[in-house]
Design a protein that fits this description.
single chain; alpha+beta; 2 domains; 6-stranded mixed beta sheet; 4 helices; 35% strand; globular
Amino acid sequence: MKAMVVVACAGTALLTAACSGRSEAKLDPSPTGSPAPSSSPVTSDTGLVLRTRTSGGIAGLGGPGSLPDFSLYGDGRAIAGSGALTEYRLTPKALRRLTSEAMAAGLATPRTVVDPQMADAMYTVITFVAGGRPRTTRLVQPTRDAQVAAFLSRLEPAKWPSTDLAAGPRPYRPSAVAALAVPGSAAGGRRWPFAPLGSGPQVGTRTCTLLTGADARRAERLTSGRWSDWTDHGRSYRVTLRPLLPDEADCSALA
């Protein structure tokens, strides 16, 4: 799976294995300055446990407002997909096993592995929440660390055995969506029926309008494909809807 990866190194041997070839690696200090926790970080709350994201490349993936590839939460929910998102739910046993594998892969110790000779390199960024604090690892693709690569291959929910799932997969239904807008040139677009566009907080080069409840559901029905053209207060906009994930409260989480 392509993904940006937040990775923690368990020790020198792991770091050496990941840094073969032209890549350069550097360890980032633990946010607490203390050793990585030795037990699974799973709790009963709904907070983020693990996230992967792909960034870089000629297309500039992973910018503000982009969706992560995979997100895992403390209640066992996993949300994945590049367009239409799918929600899965792991059993407590499977959740503990997966997070223990993240610990064994060294993701509780942040580090960065880059390739200075590739200006448009692709990277996997992994965020792993251990001891209540996020630890992030950024690795050049393809990942040269066999243990991390094996762990990433586990983050394909469509391939999880049914015995690991507490419920069958279903479409992810967000409680809120962000309408990300840029000025458009299309004349005669449909009139935008929600909160005004163009005046919200910036998310990269786009303005963000937060839609919740019935407005969020209606906007999803009205908007097809990756974007659509609208008019609002006499101006044209090209709008993309971005579903908010459970740990994203508002537009500021997308910046």
